[in-house]
Every structure is written in C-alpha cells, then in structure tokens.
C-alpha cells in the first residue's frame, strides 16, 4: 500500500463529486470538471494544515516565536493548497447550464444512484 493512498482518494473524491453534481447544477448552474483533480492534489495536505494550525494556536499560548516557526510551515502548506485551487480554477473547465436542474431530475438522479448501490450491494458477497 502506498503512503498517500492516491487510488483510494481518487475513488472517494470522484464518488463525492458524482453525488453532488446535480445539487451544484441545481443551485449554482455549473460544475467544475477539474474539481476531482484539484481535490486529489490537495486532499493529502488537509490533515497537515489542520494539525499545524492546531499546533500554531497551542504554541501561541507558550511562545510567540515557537508559534511563528510553526506558522511558517502552515503557511507553506496553505500556499500550496491555494496555488492548486487557483491554478485548476483558471483552467476554465466548468460545465455550465443555462437553467437550473429541476427537482424531478434531482429525484430521478438520486433514485438511480440508490438503485445502483442496492444492486451492487446485493451482488457483493458478505465479508466476515
């Protein structure tokens, strides 16, 4: 197994994107086609940013200079995340629609997803 779990992260983020496409199209009228790539590149750094952020806040109670050093590492991680998000956003690969997705289409989409999950679950043998 790899340290970064790229395959698992790709599958998870793609599944999440597929699950929310109709909601994004319904509420905002667009969906970014580069979002899965952006999420995949940023996903591994989120726990690091959160952890360092926590340590910066905690270290601030002990020493200003210690929190400053930790904040520098946090800044590097967050700068990377912002760079990836900005870069992929500038690619301009959004799926745009002129009118909102209707509630009927939303219901049909999620009924299909639920049906697929039930079908796949029945075909998968039980694990002990």
Q: In words, what does this structure look like?
A:
Helix content is 76%, strand content 5%. The chain has 128 residues and is mostly helical. It has a two-stranded antiparallel sheet.
Low-confidence sequence ranges: none
Biggest sheet statistics: 2 strands, antiparallel
Estimated structural class: mainly alpha
Helix content: over 70%
Distance from N terminus to C terminus (CA atoms, Å) equals: 22 Å
Helical segment count: 5
Q: What's this entry about, in short?
A:
This protein is mainly alpha-helical. It contains 5 helices and 2 strands, in the order H-E-H-H-H-E-H.
Summary tags:
mainly alpha, 128 residues, 76% helix, extended, two-stranded antiparallel sheet, single chain
Q: Which helices and strands occur, and which strands form pairs?
A:
Elements: H1 6-28, E1 30-32, H2 35-43, H3 46-62, H4 64-90, E2 94-96, H5 103-123
Antiparallel strand pairs: 1-2
Helix pairs in contact: 1-2, 1-5, 2-4, 3-4
């Amino acid at each position: 197994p790899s340290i970064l779990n790229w395959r698992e992260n790709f599958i998870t983020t793609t599944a999440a994107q597929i699950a929310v496409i109709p909601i994004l199209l319904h509420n905002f009228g667009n969906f970014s086609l580069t979002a899965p790539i952006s999420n995949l590149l940023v996903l591994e750094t989120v726990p690091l940013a959160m952890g360092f952020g926590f340590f910066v806040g905690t270290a601030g109670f002990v020493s200003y200079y210690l929190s400053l050093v930790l904040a520098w590492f946090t800044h590097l991680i967050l700068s990377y995340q912002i760079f990836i998000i900005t870069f992929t956003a500038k690619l301009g690969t959004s799926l745009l629609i002129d009118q909102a997705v209707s509630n009927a289409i939303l219901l049909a989409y999620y009924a299909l997803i639920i049906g697929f999950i039930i079908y796949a679950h029945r075909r998968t043998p039980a694990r002990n």
